[in-house]
Amino acid sequence: MRNLLVLLCLLAVTASAGDLRLEDRSFQTLAYIREDGRIEDSSFRTLGYIRDGERVEDASFHTLGYIRQNRVEGDSFETLFHIEDDGRISDPSFRTVVRISLDGTVEDDSFSVILYTDGSDPSQTVKILAYLVFFSDFLR
Where are the alpha helices (DSSP H) in 26-92? Predict the structure, then answer.
């Protein structure tokens, strides 16, 4: 009975309605982005946070950067990437580096899938982008 309760608690933690699960090409879980903006790795260790929908912090609450309207900025407000209306993410010279589709698939500039998610909408795109830029090796 105790094992069943532990399992149910784990399922409740990992399956909240507004959470996103990020998976690689092999459908292995890479990270979770919680509805409250917390970003966790596949072992549920907190990597960082997205605060107020735009400020990105590491697990020690140090600001890593910002995601604002149509750009991603570093901690000293330099533009790292541009966000296009159609889901394309461009570098400072406007070369497309990734695309985030409405179904949550993330492709690189040669249309190869690099990441899958549970789905996307404009508010989720910001969260996916925060993970890609500040917590993964995909855009470094």
Answer: none
